[in-house]
């Protein structure tokens, strides 16, 4: 089955901004989030702008046909160099670069060649660690690609000139998740089978093999624990103690290794705690969020009472798309869901499924009211209410915020 092509305007614009600039463009992200498709769409843009095929070199290192190149970095380098155009810029695209032995030398060698505009992808953060990071300090830019955003999902699922049914689309998005291929599948059963396959591949190939994990069952248990704990502060000791108490004894160091591996494979993203008063990062505890709520649902099963955590996870991922850094806010008497570092400074965000009653509304506003900083403060909810302001705190529909990629963190009500 051919996957449905989903427009990814922001990532494509990023690639366009860095075109022919003297840095390596590195696109990282979890398996099946759309890295290869993104580069394919960018190559289409290049051709549309007049670039000839002879000036485009594309190589996918997951293709069995090139497996002989993976064990000899010199052969891989010469194979690519032999295809460069004799004159003018050649655009070189290499998928899953970390699969090649000595890939650091290949990347560095191609980068120093004249008239090469280099783009590489990887499913492991190891691509930008160790020797490569040392070799290329100051010579690469990274796009951390997440799966399809809610706005992209809405655009793909809504016919032109038809107002989108945001709540129905959100329910589909929260259920099936955001991996691009799921939009081409027809049933929940197909989606679950597909996501189970992707998840197992990542756990076995990108985590267990890379980390030399002997007990894959333990690795899956830790993944389940983290996925079931989104929205809650988690520590290594808490995970180790909980699993040991449940009869699955595990050491603290093993848990640490698993978390590092899951993070490297982009299955989880940590949100560290930020001390709002002291303006510093705290060392104790962190929250972890799933890269895809569909994979989380596949792993844990559907839980009706879990809607608030799923929403928080979706908002966290969107903040990562729009902001430079995302933290958990820690105040003296309260916790703020997110502190987002934006291009214009910090913003504080609280997320709630519903705040229908005055008591619930005040409970959600209280942490934001406690902040004395003069910074944007935002309460996002699923309630179908028009935007309102409470002493400078903007409350608005989370669905409209998610669907509007231009929505920022201004607490002034915009004209509607």
General description of the model:
The two termini are 42 Å apart. Helix 1 (9-18) crosses helix 2, helix 3 packs parallel to helix 4 and helix 6 crosses helix 7 (166-176). With 416 residues, this protein is an alpha/beta fold. It has helices spanning 9-18, 35-48, 73-81, 103-111, 130-135, 150-157, 166-176, 188-211, 216-228, 236-245, 252-264, 293-300, 307-322, 358-369, 398-403, and strands spanning 24-28, 56-60, 90-95, 116-122, 140-144, 268-275, 280-290, 325-330, 335-342, 345-352, 377-381, 388-390, 393-397. The chain is built from 15 helices and 13 strands. It has a domain at 9-144: Rossmann fold, CATH 3.40.50. Strands 7-6-8-9-10-11-13-12 form an eight-stranded mixed β-sheet. It has a five-stranded parallel β-sheet with strand order 2-3-4-1-5, sandwiched between helices. Residues 412-416 have low confidence and may be disordered. The longest helix has 24 residues, at 188-211.
Offer a quick outline of the entry.
The protein is α/β, with parallel strands linked by helices and 416 residues long. The chain is 41% helix and 20% strand.
Kindly list the characteristics that best describe this protein.
alpha/beta, disordered C terminus, 20% strand, eight-stranded mixed beta sheet, 416 residues, five-stranded parallel beta sheet, Rossmann fold
């Amino acid at each position: 089955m051919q996957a449905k092509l989903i427009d990814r305007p922001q990532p494509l614009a990023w690639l366009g901004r860095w075109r022919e600039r003297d840095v390596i463009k590195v696109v990282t992200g979890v398996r099946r989030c759309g890295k290869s498709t993104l580069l394919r769409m960018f190559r289409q843009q290049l051709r549309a702008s007049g670039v000839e095929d002879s000036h485009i070199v594309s190589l996918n290192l997951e293709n069995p046909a090139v497996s002989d190149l993976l064990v000899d970095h010199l052969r891989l380098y010469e194979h690519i160099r032999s295809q460069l155009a004799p004159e003018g810029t050649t655009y070189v695209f290499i998928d899953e670069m970390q699969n090649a032995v000595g890939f650091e030398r290949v990347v560095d060698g191609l980068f120093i060649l004249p008239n090469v505009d280099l783009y590489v992808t990887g499913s492991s953060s190891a691509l930008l660690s160790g020797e490569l990071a040392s070799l290329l300090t100051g010579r690469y830019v990274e796009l951390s690609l997440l799966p399809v955003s809610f706005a992209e999902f809405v655009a793909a699922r809504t016919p032109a000139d038809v107002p989108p049914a945001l709540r129905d689309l959100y329910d589909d998005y929260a259920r099936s998740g955001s991996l691009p291929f799921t939009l081409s599948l027809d049933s929940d059963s197909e989606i679950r089978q597909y996501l189970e396959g992707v998840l197992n591949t990542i756990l076995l190939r990108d985590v267990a093999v890379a980390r030399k994990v002997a007990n894959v069952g333990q690795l899956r248990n830790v993944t389940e624990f983290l996925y079931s704990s989104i929205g809650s502060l988690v520590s290594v000791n808490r995970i180790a103690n909980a699993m040991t108490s449940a009869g699955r004894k595990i050491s603290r160091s093993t848990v640490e290794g698993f978390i590092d591996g899951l993070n490297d494979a982009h299955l989880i993203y940590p949100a560290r705690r930020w001390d709002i008063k002291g303006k510093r990062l705290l060392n104790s505890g962190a929250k972890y969020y799933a890269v895809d709520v569909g994979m989380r649902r596949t792993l844990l099963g559907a839980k009706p009472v879990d809607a608030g955590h799923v929403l928080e996870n979706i908002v966290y991922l969107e903040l990562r798309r729009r902001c430079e850094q995302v933290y958990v806010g820690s105040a003296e008497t309260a916790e703020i869901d997110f502190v987002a570092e934006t291009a214009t400074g910090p913003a504080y965000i609280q997320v709630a499924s519903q705040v229908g009653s005055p008591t619930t509304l005040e409970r959600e506003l209280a942490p934001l009211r406690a902040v004395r900083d003069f910074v944007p403060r935002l309460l996002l909810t699923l309630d179908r209410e028009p935007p309102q302001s409470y002493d400078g705190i903007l409350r608005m529909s989370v669905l409209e915020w998610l669907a509007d990629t231009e929505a920022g963190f201004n607490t002034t009500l915009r004209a509607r």
